[in-house]
Specification:
It is built from nine helices and 14 strands. It has 311 residues and is α/β, with parallel strands linked by helices. The strands form four sheets. A six-stranded parallel β-sheet has the order 3-2-1-4-5-6, sandwiched between helices. Strands 7-10-11 form a three-stranded antiparallel β-sheet, covered by helices on one side. α3 runs parallel beside α4 (122-133).
Length: 311
């Protein structure tokens, strides 16, 4: 491979992301974790699967950031996962400290890389990585909207008993209970779901989407989601590595778009070789704008809290 993707954190999300990158042959993979032997063991296991799955990506597990040098993309999953009863915001202080340390190391060895942030609370961790790296905002991107949109798409498919490939959905805002799914921009084979489902059923699907992560945490009891989050992060990485100019909802640094100033928030963006190539502004109704403003304020509150912490 002539490309290199580093994944920070060899837990469920990180290890599964490494697997997806390798199986798609997007790049060679470096998996980093502080636990001695864990990234080495998981990458060896993945290497031994290569003759069966027929991929040629090279994999390396390590504790040394020197091994991440000259990465094209770094996916940061490091941090504590949610447990039952926890909100994403409960992870703020601990994960801010972890993401700050990780990002500084990455910036030292890969100053031209593009960061995809997965650690929670997502939008606030984007701010931590942005400030710690000193990178331009187009190279710091949060994985949230792709996951939230995928959840909404899956629930629509279940409700209507149609293929997920027919469904497009759009979710804006922070990655949490204040996210803003947009039924007007969610379609089945081009047909708005507002023409196919009652208002009550749409609201039920929207509510389930907002609580999608918590639903899985409640079922697993000892962990959080990882199949869908890893798939979402790797879809973003693929769009960048292949310069697809693919439009995906991601947490992006806004400087006036959607009436948000100097804040990471989930919006549609065009992803290509430079990271975020363009931020796309949708025309929102008054109610949608108010909901997005509420979501943005929730993110701002976390960012303001970060400023008071000694992490």
């Amino acid at each position: 491979m002539d490309k290199k993707i580093t994944v920070i954190g060899a837990g469920n999300v990180g290890a599964t992301a490494a697997q997806r990158v390798a199986e798609k042959e997007l790049a060679d993979v470096v998996l980093i974790d502080i636990l001695e032997g864990v990234p080495q063991g998981k990458t060896l296991d993945l290497a031994e699967a290569a003759p069966i799955e027929l991929y040629n990506s090279k994999l390396k597990g390590s504790q040394q950031y020197e091994d991440t040098a000259n990465s094209d993309i770094v996916i940061i999953t490091a941090g504590l996962p949610r447990k039952p009863g926890m909100s994403r915001d409960d992870l703020l202080t601990t994960n801010a400290r972890i993401v700050k340390q990780v990002t500084r190391e990455i910036a030292k060895y890969s100053p031209e890389t593009i960061l995809i942030i997965v650690s929670n609370p997502l939008d606030a961790m984007c701010h931590v990585a942005y400030e710690a790296s000193g990178f331009p905002p187009n190279r710091v991107i949060g994985m949230a909207g792709v996951l939230d949109s995928a959840r909404l798409r899956s629930f629509i498919a279940m409700e209507l008993n149609v293929s997920v490939s027919n469904i497009h959905a759009c979710v804006l805002g922070g990655h949490g209970d204040t996210m803003v799914p947009l039924p007007r921009y969610s379609t089945v084979a081009g047909i708005p779901i507002t023409d196919l489902l009652s208002e009550d059923r749409i609201e039920a699907l929207v509510d389930r989407t907002r609580k999608g992560g918590a639903e899985i945490v409640g079922l697993l009891k000892t962990g959080s989601a990882y199949y869908a989050p890893s798939a979402a992060a790797v879809e973003m990485a693929e769009a960048i590595i292949k310069d697809q100019n693919k439009i995906l909802p991601c947490a992006a640094y806004l400087t006036g778009e959607y009436a948000c100033q100097n804040l990471f928030i989930g919006v549609p963006v065009k992803l290509g070789k430079s990271g975020i190539e363009q931020i796309i502004e949708l025309k929102l109704t008054s109610d949608e704008s108010k909901a997005l403003a509420t979501s943005a304020q929730a993110v701002q509150n976390l960012v303001d809290t970060l400023k008071t912490l000694n992490y």
